[in-house]
Specification:
The protein is built from five helices and three strands. The protein has 124 residues and is mainly alpha-helical.
């Protein structure tokens, strides 16, 4: 009987230690996720500066700079995804899809197998 009780005590001790480790890991994951979120915001701000749209990034600015979608299209490769458009423009996906549909309507872009393709004058 003593052996069984010792085994249970050892198991319960191990179980408590595992619980403490799990709690610690969850706390650390939460901290890392906050750090990652802050880093992603920094990347977005720097991307705006690199693309020359720092004025639009200033919060509370009285006048917003209108996004030139044609400039965004010129900066994209011949084949691209909607996510690439979102990264280039800094706009949410709803606005990206509106821009893509406008390009499709204007025959500047067509939907391809792996995303979207620019339409050149000879390929219509």
């Amino acid at each position: 009987m003593a052996r069984t009780k010792t085994s249970r005590d050892a198991f319960n001790t191990l179980k408590k230690q595992a619980g403490k480790i799990l709690t610690s890991l969850r706390r650390e994951i939460g901290q890392k996720e906050k750090e990652l979120s802050a880093l992603k915001q920094d990347v977005q701000r720097l991307q705006l500066v690199v693309n020359g749209r720092a004025a639009a990034a200033v919060s509370g600015s009285p006048s917003r700079v209108r996004l030139d979608w044609n400039l965004i299209l010129k900066e994209l490769p011949d084949t691209f995804s909607s996510k690439e458009v979102s990264l280039k423009s800094g706009k949410p996906m709803e606005q990206v899809y509106a821009g893509l549909n406008r390009w499709i309507k204007d025959r500047k872009v067509r939907k391809g197998k792996e995303g979207y393709q620019k339409v050149t004058a000879g390929r219509q």
